[in-house]
Write a structure and sequence with these properties.
The chain is α/β, with parallel strands linked by helices and 249 residues long. It has a single domain, classed as Purple Acid Phosphatase, chain A, domain 2, CATH 3.60.21.10. 22% of the residues lie in helices and 27% in strands. The chain has seven helices and 14 strands. Strands 4-5-6-3-2-1-13-14 form an eight-stranded mixed β-sheet, with no helix packed on it. Strands 7-8-9-10-12-11 form a six-stranded mixed β-sheet, with helices on one face. It is globular. It starts with a strand and ends with a strand.
Length: 249
């Protein structure tokens, strides 16, 4: 029983880290689960399901924490089901995308999921084609997600796409501000309707009693500090039986 954590793959662009050869090398099977930290990006184009089919044909289960490079309009048309004790979208027989704030139990471990991120390259994108309003969580849904975690108590792992703003600024040196007015105009939203995940996750990071460990992506870095790891080129394989965590490069 193993769990493989992987970051951004962006359709086929960054999928080499989980090539067919790597899947065979890791001997992934039906007892294993992949947890994707977001920007799986399939199907980016509804007329091209080839990369989605690659994920559907993997010999293991896949849990996707949605990011900001996702075709939300397509995803939200998929069946809403319950799996691992939480609700989410069935993107394939073996692919499950939990809703914001869901707490899943996988191989006896608990995971809290917080999807979404702010696309700073929004100026180059087209609404409902290459950027989707849903990439930022609704404030009401975010508030419920945070409340759910606090009422549940400590989970083994937090899975988010964005990282806590303070963590990212301190370790990566990125200046992170709130969403711009131009962005809100692009996605046709009013300020306050949706939230920037980085700011929300800041508050969660301060509550260290709520999690043992944390994985996120989005920032295209491989970095670990304070029981928090950002994934990009590396993956982490967690063997539940002996609690060994191996970094896969």
């Amino acid at each position: 029983m193993r769990i493989l954590f992987i970051g951004d793959t962006h359709g086929s662009i960054d999928l080499d880290k989980l090539s067919e050869e790597k899947v065979k090398e890791l001997q992934l099977n039906n007892n294993d689960v992949i947890i994707h930290c977001g920007d799986i990006g399939v199907p980016w184009n509804e007329n091209d399901l080839s990369v989605l089919e690659y994920w559907r044909n993997l010999p293991c289960q896949v849990i996707v924490n949605l990011g900001n490079h996702e075709n939300y309009n397509w995803i939200e048309k998929q069946p809403l089901i319950e799996r691992y004790g939480g609700k989410g979208y069935q993107m394939g027989e073996n692919i499950f995308a939990p809703l914001i704030g869901e707490i899943l139990t996988v191989h006896g471990k608990t995971f809290w999921f917080y999807p979404g991120a702010y696309s700073i390259d929004y100026g180059y994108r087209t609404l409902n084609k290459s950027i989707y309003t849903q990439e930022l969580p609704l404030k009401v849904d975010s508030d419920k997600a945070v409340k759910h975690l606090k009422e549940f108590g400590q989970v083994d792992v937090i899975i988010s796409h964005d990282g806590p703003r303070e963590f990212v600024m301190r370790h990566f040196g990125y200046p992170i501000g709130d969403v711009s007015n131009a962005y809100l105009e692009k996605v046709q939203q009013k300020r306050g309707e949706r939230v920037h995940p980085g700011f929300v996750l800041d508050e969660i990071m301060k509550c260290t009693d709520l999690y043992d460990y944390w994985y996120f992506g989005h920032h295209h870095k491989d970095y670990e500090a304070e029981n928090i790891r950002c994934l990009m080129n590396q993956m982490v394989l967690w063997n539940i039986e002996d609690n060994n965590k191996e970094v896969i490069s």
